[in-house]
Amino acid sequence: MSRLEVLKELLEEQRKLLPALRQSNPARAYLLMREQRETVREIAEIQGNGQVKGVTLADQLAEARAARAARAAGA
């Protein structure tokens, strides 16, 4: 699961929790709204950097290892 997918899932969970928290615990709702803004900012940053959706850390590590192996074989 990519970082972008995790953040989108987190944002969806936050949006589900917010209405109930506004009634039961306004202070916690305020903190959750601040957390939501940060999550949205991170999503926008990832999408703005042109990262390919679905690229996971494992994919990035595999690519780096392959590049290192190619350099080692060529050197």
From TrEMBL:
This is Uncharacterized protein. It comes from Microbacterium album.
